[in-house]
Specification:
By secondary structure, the chain is an all-alpha fold. The protein is about 65% helix and about 0% strand. Helix 7 packs antiparallel against helix 8 and helix 9 packs antiparallel against helix 10.
């Protein structure tokens, strides 16, 4: 048996993975409601029938998209928050670093929550679990930093982060993170004293 050639292409992605990749690209950039099933299928190179066979419909694909983002920790703030190589206080403060303006369109979970108003949508539990786990991780970092009342600090930092993110998304001005950072640093400093 010979060795594989270096120019052998990797196997193509499955239709399920192509649909997920298309949703990641289109839902965040264009919005969930603005992205139709036809566009998703065209970008993924699959039929509508395939989407419905694999995911049951667009709503279930939305839930899978958000579950994938949750598992992969795609935002820099989130990756850093879970980076145990960083000091706990640094993990907390970096939440308020300015995101890359070329890639920023807010929090995918917040955006989805705003767009998905149907009660019982399959993505709703994914959104709630993500936000709750994010807040718990902030509180855990506060605990590791030796802060008093880490859950209370975690809640305050979560509110501040969510507010900065929402404001930056609404106005297109990332200065919201610059304004939030000294407030966060004061809260962290006071809780660590």
């Amino acid at each position: 048996m010979g060795t594989p050639s270096a120019d052998v292409a990797p196997p193509p992605l499955s239709p399920r993975k192509r649909l997920l990749a298309a949703s990641i690209s289109l839902f965040y950039r264009n919005g969930i409601q603005a992205t139709g099933v036809s566009e998703l299928c065209e970008v993924a190179g699959v039929s509508k029938r395939t989407l419905y066979q694999l995911y049951g419909g667009k709503d279930e694909l939305i839930a899978a998209y958000l579950a994938h983002l949750r598992e992969k920790r795609v935002s820099p703030a989130e990756r850093n928050l879970f980076d145990d190589a960083l000091a706990p206080r640094e993990r907390l403060a970096q939440l308020f670093d300015r995101p890359d303006p070329a890639r920023f369109r807010g929090c995918a979970f917040h955006n989805a929550s705003v767009e998905l108003t149907m009660p019982g949508h399959p993505a709703t539990p994914v959104i709630h679990e993500y936000k709750e786990s994010f807040e718990r991780r902030i509180a855990q970092s506060a605990r590791e930093a030796g802060c008093k009342e880490p859950e209370e600090l975690g809640r305050a930092l979560m509110l501040l982060f969510e507010g900065a993110t929402a404001l930056a998304t609404s106005t297109g001005d990332l200065a919201a993170f610059d304004a939030a950072r000294p407030v966060a640093e004061k809260l962290i400093g006071d809780a660590a004293a």
